[in-house]
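A further point concerns the way the authors explain their paired sequence and structure data. For illustration, here is how one protein appears when written out as sequence plus structure tokens:
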Amino acid sequence: MSAFEQLMAFEHTTQALGQVAGRLGWDQEAIMPAGAAPQRAEEMAAMESVLHARRIDPQVGAWLSEIDEAQLDEVQKAHVRHIRKTFERTSKVPADLAAEIAKVTSRAQGIWAQARADEDVAAFLPTLKEVVSLKQLEGQALAAGGNVYDAMIDDYEPDMTAAELGAMFDAMRPRLVALREAVLAAKAPPQLTGAFPSAKQMELTAKLAASFGYDFDHGRIDKVTHPFCSGSGLDVRITTRTSDEPFNCFYSTIHEVGHAAYEQGIDRNYLLTPLGRGVSMGVHESQSRIYENQLGRSRAYTGWLFEQMKATFGDFGVENAEDFYGTVNRVNDGYIRTEADEVQYNLHIMLRFDLERALMMGDLSVDDLEAAWNDRFAADFGYAVDKPSNGVLQDVHWSVGLFGYFPTYSLGNVYAGCLNQALRKAVPNLDAQLAEGNTTAATGWLRENLQQFGGLRTPAETIAHATGAAPNGGPLLDYLEEKFGGIYKL
């Protein structure tokens, strides 16, 4: 076997073990008994120790040094690029630190969930301090004297920096704020009324997932506190949650189906290789957001959903499909990021981006985080946070150490705006199909032009390949202004 062949055989096993570790995380969130948390933390730490050792194995470095990349094709070069980056980055992080992070964040997840349920920030702060301290150490190791937060972002969006994100967000904010103010000053669409039993929500949500092409032979839907997607290749699982407001369930599901479709759509030849996963969280989020918003909240698709809602729940206070389109896209005051409308969603992300960057750079202490959150929220949204579960405790990300992840949500929205513009040009009769609950043309275009390639290209190259242009925020802002200007008659 050549050095490249030996490297890929070794990597195949590493990727398989990584899938096992991911399944432990899914199990912890979806079905693990609460009392198993201490043992699960040890199991996760053990798995991370094994994975860390494989990723920095000296033999990996030896194989990489032996490979003549001039002799490789495009796919082989991409494999080597990913493996080399992982090897070099992981080698900077001490094995004991990696294992401790895995152990502490696994334990922190349960502590956060209980603190959130109890509305008790103080109960979570000591653990959050541990997580922040450990992640700062990791960031310092990765940055090697450079910007700590940039090093963290690179885990989720390669080649992106806080400065670039900050400039993008600063450019977007004025138009978003202006649109928000205009919308909230206008007459709002009707709201839902009636009862929406949880069992019926789950029945309809499975139908919605199927309408977007989710492959149930290689996936499943479960209920959790915080919806997520887990896995890749032949085993891609999604989760959702139910509440008194059924759109939370339906659009969380469609969002996670977008993530799952990306993983299920990747070329099977890339299975259990570095290319067999989504290339970045920003690109991943572009799939979940275009499924959820530009497709799932479109006038055409909501017309079909209106009929499904009537068949499932009977009368729910909305008279016709056009009013229902407004109801689905209604801009409301609210605290929860995952339930935020398209107009305000990115403002939630910008808040988190600024706070976590300050935490990681040592400019904000964990003890001051709640006050900083509440002050920023009041300034951005015009009203006060009423309880911690609607404020600093609402998201799972910081408890599990995902610093640098939040900004990729807004970046995904930007990418989705670019993709939607290209999709609409490529499929001019798209709305006629969506009106029948048929997303095949849209999802097929996304699979053909983006999803199948997995990690073959860099994030920016992935979007440019699909759309024919470098990503920028203009298409997203134009889409939002046109859509909500129409709904609210601005």
About this structure: The chain has a mean pLDDT of 95. The two ends are 66 Å apart (CA to CA). The first strand starts at residue 221 and ends at 223. Residues 3-30 form the longest helix (28 residues).
